[in-house]
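Q: Predict the assembly, please.
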Amino acid sequence: MSTVTHDHDTAHHGEHHHHAPSGLKRWLYTTNHKDIGTLYLLFALTMFFIGGAMAMVIRAELFQPGLQLVQADFFNQMTTVHGLIMVFGAVMPAFTGLANWLIPMMIGAPDMALPRMNNWSFWILPFAFAILLASLFMEGGGPGFGWTFYAPLSTKYSGDSTALFVFSVHIMGISSIMGAINVIVTIFNLRAPGMTWMKMPLFVWTWLITAFLLIAVMPVLAGTVTMVLTDKYFGTSFFDAAGGGDPVLFQHIFWFFGHPEVYIMILPAFGIVSSIVPTFARKPLFGYASMVYATSSIALLSFLVWAHHMFTTGMPVFAELFFMYCTMLIAVPTGVKVFNWVATMWKGAMTFEVPMMFALAFIVLFTIGGFSGLMLAITPADFQYHDTYFVVAHFHYVLVTGAIFSIIAAAYYWLPKWTGHMYDETLGQWHFWCSLISVNMLFFPMHFVGLAGMPRRIPDYALQFADFNAFISIGGFAFGLSQLLFVWVLVKCIKGGEKATDQVWEGAEGLEWTLSSPPPYHSFTTPPEVK
Amino acid sequence: MSKTYDKYYVPEQSPWPIVGAVALFMIAFGAGNFVNEVTRNKEGYGGYLLLAGVAVLLFMLVGWFRNVIDESMHGLYSKQMDRSFRQGMSWFIFSEVMFFAAFFGALFYARMIAMPWLDGASNNAMTAQLLWPDFSAHWPMTKTPGGTETTAMPWQGLPLYNTLILLTSSVTLHFAHVGLEQGKRTQLKLMLTLTVLLGAAFLACQAYEYVHAYRDLGLKLDSGIYGNTFFLLTGFHGLHVTLGAIFLLVILLRILLKNHFTAHNHFAFQAAAWYWHFVDVVWLCLFVFVYVL
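A: Predicted assembly structure:
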């Protein structure tokens, strides 16, 4: 089958040579980076709505104080699985999908370096999430210990679904590691002649560093879940003081994975925004080299800050101070990035199409999330904020208005390239404004209820938080509904619409815009010369 | 076919990845159920599903590698493709390093931080007095705060022999590689066979050591943090040695039966060798930190 050889004349042969297979087989057996990218993106979108539906359950329960709709146990399962799905099922696969679609086109490669493994990394995911979701329906319910699965919640006090949770995380990890290896090897080995390191688009740079982080920390997560498994089922006591272990050990190992993980979910977003802002400001990116160095230093620092998630769990003061200062250091390279984006727009000839709107919203709202992160980094202040809604507000600002907004921006930005059609600008603007207003109704008041002391992950709350929570829930429902507009725009754009030009955007630069819209099945069969 | 293939080879389509995904699903879902069944003494199909998954995975690996070997033999691969494989394998080994790092991290934390704290170090004097008055910090932790007692595994004897066996196997593997590169096929076959045998000997000793630990020393997986780290670290290492030995065995069979690999084209051999040297290095760390110190 694969030994079939073609005549390999140096003459250019078009896409017709590789007859794209059709039907179900095309998607199951595919080795094509664009098909796999599409699969990743559609999967992420599906998971985004499933995880979103769980968020709706959470917000419906929290609409009023007291328990109305669901049992406390089920509420815990919703917060847990919502987190797991959004992190591992929505944000990460969406970024991997973008990487698959874009990296070969951006560096002038025919495909990803290891195309079959690419397919394998994708197809593991639907199965992994099928297992996780199926565990919700088993006796005793699904995992309910929070997406961070702290011991002893996940070891002593968890249900039978824990084993399924552990093994589904294992295969998700295998998928992520293979995907990351593929990205790194593609970037190292398949760049077109002349595409030197410091000519690579920032999206490629940020993904290269993200992939390194993934390979470094996903195995640590695998180790963590393995210890949870043996502690729960086989009598080990890694996280049990009676056997000589320590529950705090769990948090150290988990967050050694977990903190780089949050940068895994934001570095590609930096790359996306760094692609979009120059296009619509019609100016080259300000401070390209400093962007590369800033990304690298954020990645390095991410290995030295994990314990800022556990200031209240008991650590020597010296350790608390070390982690506090390292965490605050991250504000420097992040500040460099925000400065560069703003400086790129300075005196630019700006237009405000939907991708740019989402990118601008990203810059402002991600910065809010960054600043609340800085507040949380201050150890004594964190004693007050820890495990309150302030933390929930913080990480939703960086993940929803950060990561998710950048993914949406990327979808609008490259959709005309992918489909060959322009999306509906009016509908897109509606989607943007509805999302922007509702997302702030949803997450901004969480800062206040958090500072006032409302704990996170609790299905019930004190009466004084009632008005704020009702308001937050309305924002949540509105944000959820707004995303249906996004689906409408996507479907419309895939089915048809105004024909997109090759360059699509007046100010767009980069190899992917030199290809036709939609691009040929194999991007660059012969590598382009990069000047 | 006389032309050199200078384009990057992109396979058309392949059924193997989806088969592999199904296999991993069966393994994960099977194992998830099996763990519950075996620890709760329940009847179930988890174990069978797990075994079937492993079988499908093996089937997939054989099919996939057969395709890759065919493609390579037909000259479809370029130097660039070879680099992709090498880099991919290197990063895979790096991910394995990080997997072991998690368990070594747990060992160091338990030993250097958690154990002294349980005995009242730092600011924990009162807590230790109240919770674990009888506990005193000592590594190997032969008596846990909860009172479980066990015996430590000495490094002299079997573990030392195992270290020598594994180190020797790395040397023989190196000579096999030299033989391959210089076209001395007999040296290659002899040295590679020796390597696989040494690997098998290591595993046999390790299996005996586990029996010895359980039967004579009372050192068990649930004997507190010392037993936990001992069995998980040596266990995962043993698993990797097993995989590495199978990997080398397959390479050996390809050499003996099919006369595969040339002095210049032997990525699979190289990958197996890297993997073997990697498990060797992990063992050295294990020997020092788990057994000796």
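The domain at 31-514 of chain A is CATH 1.20.210.10 (Cytochrome C Oxidase; Chain A). Residues 1-17 of chain A have pLDDT under 50 and may be disordered.
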